[in-house]
Backbone:
């Protein structure tokens, strides 16, 4: 019997010397034997492993000199989402460090992995005849020259294939330490056990995660020997006395899983393939151990067919996630039963031992940070975590980090926040800065844009000082702008972090009940067959559900009933923590009406309420129509009337008819119609052209499916031909402004942030009045004026 496994090898060699990889003039950050704390550590193990990057500051003409990097950079390599957990004696995962394939093991011994070093030199396991990766297959610097695919020769520099057992002591540390890294192994026996085919199907194994201790720019990944084979000699039979050797080829492949990043080929042999889908593939139809066609054969088949090369991950990242796959091709499925093998005690463990490395240019002066989805705000004075659990990172669908001058008035640079919530400014000049987080991208040299977040997002805090490990939100002002950052020579500033979160939503309810008598008491829960206060919050309660155990606040109370919680009268605007729906009751005390209603808001873990409280309405049987409005406004844009209304309930609703009159005592005419959608909380819009010098009266006719109907309140508008009546001056404003041209009677003025957050309300009982805003931060605001008649005017205000 002749049994042989040929395997390639995979090592995460974080950094390689100038004798091994090409680099830019400023040098690269790499890993040597000095990068690891225990070079004798053996596998197989699935425990996370750490390497510390070292600085190679020399160029190719003067040799190499590694030294401790002044601003420590580490990479933790771990596994996630492991698919296969079958135990084979000393190996119980599909992917491990320090594992390897074994030959035949007799005497009834259990099938097991070979024991290998977790950290090792690049060529420690194989002789030169195995076709190891060669110099022309690699480029270490992300700014280096891309080398065309290597085929039987190349002009790049890379791993030195002649360096058996560690190569040369080129950094004068007394050992051959220029090509150390992590040895990994994918065990293919689970594929055989599951009967999965080796027919070019890619089988998912899990993820390899390379996590840096701070954001890095354009890391380069290097792969060595993706591919291998297993072969066996079948037992001779009467019908086949001289069987031929059978072969199964396979290879490990990868997908870069980081959302929003791209990648590109830097160098490699003829089988190393990087495509537009961020896949790192072996294009050989018969992948095997050798990376070069050195002529080595075993029982008539070439050892050649491994893929080796370098790929750059484009962008700023704090971690790289690689989805790991095994693809097979050959005459059988990955392994073989003992009964089929001639002359062996039992089937050996089969798998793929392979290599990887990562390197990057040494950064100059940088400022970097993260944007966290901070669900509890500054409740724990920490934007990086909530209740001791790390917050996820986000870019909220489209954010920019704008680097501002010391005064905060001018943009120095602007970068998009990555999908992973990471941003980084590179090559920053020595000076003082602040960082602004906004949906508005800044233009270098231009004034600072308005600070804004996507709809329904709010700021929760910014890190104050900029020392490593400082993660508290202590800069004192929650405004989307960091505290001052001073960059000196060779400074790498990190942890300039931002916390943001989304606001909660509360659910509208309308329930028809039998007409209650005065003094009737009902519990607002299923105890009385009534809806429970309900809401959702992207961070705390993504799926809409009961607010039991949450915090709620009742913002408007009914005028014909009393609400009590746990026997105590509810006070409008007072939060109710740890809400229990069985403790909220309503007592009907008149006057006789056809309904009773109140508003409530879900308050999330950060203490922020729903900015648009929900309507909870109880309607007596035989009372008002199914359509219930929560808002009806008329706003003039030049000489166009814009009508907007929102419903709380559309039970059996049919349609809305829009009617208009130019005389309050005249007959109204129908000018439009919109079908009801039977969706509670629906907003509708309608526009109507007006003429100058005419007073217009608008109302809605709300029609039910049974033909019954009722009218809304009337809204009035006037067009004077110029399209404006109300003025705000001065604008921009410093401390106060004057509103002129309002209607007689009480006018309610509300000021909102660009995110729609109400920050000030004031009532003026005449057509003109002053509004003070000296306590507002600089920025853009909306001003909404509602007259006593219900007419609405909206304008913009700039605060200096």
Residues:
């Amino acid at each position: 019997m002749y049994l042989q496994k040929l395997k390639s090898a995979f090592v995460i060699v974080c950094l390689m010397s100038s004798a091994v990889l090409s680099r830019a003039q400023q040098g690269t950050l790499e890993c040597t034997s000095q990068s690891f704390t225990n070079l004798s550590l053996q596998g197989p193990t699935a425990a996370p492993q750490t390497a510390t990057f070292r600085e190679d500051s020399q160029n190719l003409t003067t040799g190499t000199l590694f030294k401790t990097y002044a601003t420590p950079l580490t990479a933790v390599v771990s596994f996630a989402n492991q698919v296969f957990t079958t135990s084979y004696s000393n190996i119980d995962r599909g992917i491990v460090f320090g594992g390897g394939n074994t030959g035949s093991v007799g005497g009834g011994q259990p099938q097991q992995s070979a024991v290998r070093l977790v950290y090792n030199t690049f060529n420690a396991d194989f002789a030169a005849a195995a076709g190891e990766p060669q110099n022309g297959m690699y480029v270490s610097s992300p700014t280096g020259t891309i080398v065309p695919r290597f085929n039987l020769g190349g002009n790049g520099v890379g791993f030195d294939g002649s360096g058996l057992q560690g190569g040369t002591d080129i950094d004068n540390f007394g050992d051959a330490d220029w090509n150390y890294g992590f040895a990994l192994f994918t065990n293919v026996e689970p594929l055989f056990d599951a009967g999965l085919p080796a027919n070019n199907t890619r089988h998912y194994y899990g993820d390899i995660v390379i996590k840096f201790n701070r954001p890095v720019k354009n890391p380069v990944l290097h792969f060595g020997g993706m591919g291998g084979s297993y072969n066996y000699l079948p037992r001779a039979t009467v019908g086949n006395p001289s069987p031929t050797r059978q072969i199964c080829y396979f290879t490990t492949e990868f997908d870069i899983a980081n959302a929003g990043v791209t990648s590109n080929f830097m160098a490699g042999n003829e089988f190393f393939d990087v495509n537009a889908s961020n896949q790192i593939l072996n294009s050989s139809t018969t992948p095997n151990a050798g990376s070069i066609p050195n002529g080595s054969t075993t029982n008539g088949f070439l050892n050649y067919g491994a893929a080796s090369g370098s790929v750059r991950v484009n962008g700023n990242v704090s971690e790289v996630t690689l989805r790991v796959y095994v693809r097979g091709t050959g005459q059988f499925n990955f392994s073989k039963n003992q009964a089929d093998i001639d002359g062996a005690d039992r089937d050996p463990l089969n798998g793929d031992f392979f290599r990887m490395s990562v390197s990057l240019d040494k950064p100059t002066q940088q400022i970097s940070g993260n944007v966290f989805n901070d669900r509890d705000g500054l409740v724990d004075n920490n934007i990086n975590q909530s209740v001791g659990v790390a917050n996820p990172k986000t870019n909220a669908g489209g954010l920019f980090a704008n680097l501002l001058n010391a005064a905060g008035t001018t943009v120095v640079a602007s970068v998009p926040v990555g999908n992973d919530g990471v941003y980084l400014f590179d090559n920053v000049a020595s000076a003082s800065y602040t960082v602004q987080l906004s949906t508005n991208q800044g233009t270098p040299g231009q004034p600072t844009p308005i600070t804004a977040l996507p709809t329904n997002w709010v700021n929760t805090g910014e890190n104050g000082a900029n020392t490593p490990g400082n993660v508290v939100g202590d800069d004192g002002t929650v405004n989307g702008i960091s505290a001052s950052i001073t960059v000196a020579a060779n400074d790498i500033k990190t942890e300039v972090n931002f916390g943001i979160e989304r606001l909660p939503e509360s659910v509208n309810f309308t329930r028809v009940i039998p007409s209650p008598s005065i003094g009737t008491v009902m519990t607002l829960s299923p105890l009385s067959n009534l809806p429970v206060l309900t809401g959702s919050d992207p961070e705390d309660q993504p799926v809409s559900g009961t607010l039991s155990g949450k915090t709620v606040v009742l913002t408007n109370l009914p005028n014909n009933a009393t609400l009590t919680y746990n026997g105590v009268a509810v006070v409008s605007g007072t939060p109710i923590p740890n809400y229990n729906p069985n403790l909220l009751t309503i007592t009907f005390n008149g006057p006789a009406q056809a309904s009773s209603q109140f508003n409530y808001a879900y308050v999330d873990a950060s203490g922020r309420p729903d900015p648009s409280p929900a309507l909870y309405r109880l309607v007596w049987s035989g009372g008002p129509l199914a359509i219930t409005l929560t808002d009806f406004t008329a706003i003039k844009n030049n000489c166009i009337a814009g009508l907007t209304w929102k419903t709380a309930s559309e039970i059996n609703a049919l349609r809305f008819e829009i009617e208009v009159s130019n005389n309050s005592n005249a007959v109204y005419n129908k000018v439009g119609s919109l079908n009801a959608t039977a969706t509670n909380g629906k907003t509708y819009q309608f526009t109507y052209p007006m003429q100058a010098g005419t007073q217009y009266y608008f109302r809605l006719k709300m029609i039910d499916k049974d033909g019954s109907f009722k009218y809304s309140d009337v809204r009035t508008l006037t067009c004077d031909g110029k399209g404006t009546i109300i003025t705000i001056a001065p604008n921009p404003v410093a401390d106060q402004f004057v509103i002129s041209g309002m209607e007689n009677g009480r006018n309610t003025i509300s000021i909102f942030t660009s995110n729609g957050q109400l920050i000030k309300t004031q009532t003026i009982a005449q057509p003109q009045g002053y509004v003070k805003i000296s306590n507002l931060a600089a920025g853009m605001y909306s001003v909404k004026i509602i007259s006593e008649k219900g007419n609405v005017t909206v304008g913009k205000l700039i605060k200096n």
About this structure: The radius of gyration is 35 Å. The longest helix spans residues 189-193. The mean pLDDT is 81.
